Amino acid sequence: MKARGWLYLIAATLLAAPWVLPGYALEVAIQVLILALFATAFNLVFAETGLLSFGHAAFFGVGAYTSALLMQRASWPYLLTLPAAVGTAAALALLIGFFSVRTSRIYFTMLTLAFAQLVWAVVHKWYAFTGGDNGVTGLQPGQLWSDPHALYYLALLLTVVTFLLAVRLHLAPFGYALRAIRDNQARAEAVGLSPFGYLLAAFTLSGALAGAAGFLQVAWQRSAFPDFLYWTKSAEVIIATILGGAQSILGPSLGSLVFVELGAFVQSHTEYWPLVLGLVLLGLVLFLPRGLAGLGGARAGD
After folding, report:
1. Res 199: pLDDT
2. Distances (CA, A) of 87 to 42, 53, 211
3. Torsion of CA 21, 35, 246, 164, to 10 degrees
4. Environment class of residue 168 by beta-carbon count within 10 Å: exposed (0-12), middle (13-18) or buried (19+)?
5. Contact by Cβ (8 Å): 109, 54
6. Handedness of CA 218, 220, 225, 227 (dihedral sign)
7. What global pTM score does this model have?
8. Is 224 helix (H, G, I), strand (E, B) or coil?
9. What pLDDT, on a 0 to 100 scale, did the predictor assign at position 7?
10. What are the φ and ψ backbone dihedral angles of 224, each rounded to 5 degrees?
11. Residue 183 backbone dihedrals phi, psi, to 5 degrees
12. What are the CB-based long-range contacts (under 8 Å, 24+) for 189-198?
């Protein structure tokens, strides 16, 4: 089948999914889309710049809490909290990125982790504002977005827009500049590129899109908890990206699908999900270092 035929088939499958999937499977599908959006946002930094951020949970969680608190404290309609969630996550990413992108790779990873844990600690302990470890619960996104069918299509829309944006940026001069900085920063500076400006812009955009994923998580779970900002949330998105293949733009979405579906299946049969996940990752490292997307030869086109 030609590429266009596969595209039509995938589009038809995604559009028809809510009407053929049973209730639980539809909820899982929504979670797949949320993680796919989050992973695609994360990969804008990981693949394009070569920097491993262990702090993206901060942007996901801040986006979620922004949406949740505006709904609870200010009675904002759910959909209108999206710009605020994205904007707040972008502002936090700009602040963290301002300090982090100046550092080398391992120090970048540790610094993003440190900032994220700092934000988590504030949210976890600020009972008067965030609810502390009790979180923000009992949220009502409205009759429309309480319907899994409507929420699925909203998640699908935002995920597709993020994916198309990632493709566009990858093929734009901005993407080429990021990869030039990734491959040889000294040479990139010699031809007039500003590594700090490009890396900060990519990091901020990535954080903003991660905030959109947090916005969706609030409607899906109807609550927001400090766990959204904990380092294990960052680990989930890293694993999903590596599982699918970071060097393919489609890889993070593919990895999210396998990660969520495999997790749901394994946890319904055994409590040893971390063991199974560890074995899967071990197999990938040994036999599929380019991830699942490498099976089809899909690459980002470096």
Report:
1. 95
2. 17, 19, 8
3. 80
4. exposed
5. yes
6. negative
7. 0.94
8. strand
9. 76
10. -140, 135
11. -80, -35
12. 195/101, 196/101, 196/102, 198/174
CA 15/CA 245 separation, integer angstroms: 25
The answer to whether residues 49 and 112 touch, using CB atoms and an 8 Å cutoff, is no
- For tokens 């922004």, name the residue: 66
Q: If 0-12 CB within 10 Å is exposed, 13-18 middle and 19+ buried, where does residue 5 land?
A: exposed
Matching residue, tokens 């699925």: 152
Backbone angle region of 155, left / alpha / beta, with phi > 0 → left and psi within -120 to 50 → alpha: alpha
Distance CA 181, CA 203 (A): 14
Quote the pLDDT of residue 300. 47
pLDDT of residue 302: 45
CA distance 167 to 161: 10
Kindly state the tokens that stand for 62: 């801040």
Length of the chain: 302
Gyration radius from the chain CA atoms: 19
Angstrom distances, CA of residue 215 to CA of 3, 13, 192: 33, 25, 38
Where in the chain are the domains?
17-230
| Assigned token pair, 80 | 């209108």
Type of residue at 126: W
| 238-276-133-26 Cα dihedral, nearest 10 degrees | 80
State the 10-residue block means of pLDDT for the chain, 302 residues long: 72 89 91 96 94 95 97 94 97 96 90 96 94 92 92 96 95 94 90 92 97 96 94 93 91 93 87 86 82 66 45
Q: Smallest Cα–Cα separation from 199: which of 105, 127, 125? A: 105
